[in-house]
Amino acid sequence: MEIDLEQCRENDKIKEIISKSQLPIKYIKLLLRLSDGIYLNAINYNVAINNKTIIITLISSKPDNENGFFNTTSLTNIFYKLREMERENHEIQTSCQIDKDLINLVIEIKNS
């Protein structure tokens, strides 16, 4: 996946991608909340949506902006939000994949 660094710096661009994804409103709202959480935890990230699979790529923590370096508290907060999202919505399955220095949060929506 090619990372658009300009996009990962602008939360509004990512929120626009989520909003225009043609997912049901329920999931758009959940993803926008998760997106806000990532942004507020000062993590550079990007998003890709393909049908009912969402990949959120965590790139680095701010202000260092060095790929693969994250603040532990920020990651904990994001993983907690992801876990709660999955727990409250049984049709959502999540996983985490490490790809070189990046963390890919994979969210799959089943039977929506």
Describe this structure in words.
The protein has 112 residues and is an alpha+beta fold. It has one domain: Heat Shock Protein 90 (2-Layer Sandwich). Helices cover 42% and strands 29% of the residues. It contains four helices and four strands, in the order H-H-H-E-E-H-E-E. The chain has helices spanning 5-9, 11-19, 25-40, 72-88; strands at 43-50, 53-61, 92-99, 102-109. A four-stranded antiparallel β-sheet has the order 1-2-4-3. Helix 2 (11-19) runs antiparallel to helix 3 and helix 3 runs antiparallel to helix 4 (72-88). The chain is globular, with a radius of gyration of 13 Å.
User: Main sheet, how many strands, which sense, barrel?
Assistant: 4 strands, antiparallel
Tell me how many strands there are: 4
Task: Please give the radius of gyration in angstroms.
Answer: 13 Å
Classify the beta-strand content into a percent band.
25-35%
User: What spatial order of strands do you see in the largest sheet?
Assistant: 1-2-4-3
- Oligomeric state as shown: single chain
> Taking all residues together, what is the mean pLDDT?
88
The number of helical runs is: 4
CATH class: Alpha Beta
CATH hierarchy: architecture: 2-Layer Sandwich
Structural class: alpha+beta
Unreliable spans are none
Number of domains: 1
- Amino-to-carboxy terminus distance: 27 Å
CATH topology: Heat Shock Protein 90
- N-to-C order of helices and strands: HHHEEHEE
> What is the global morphology?
globular
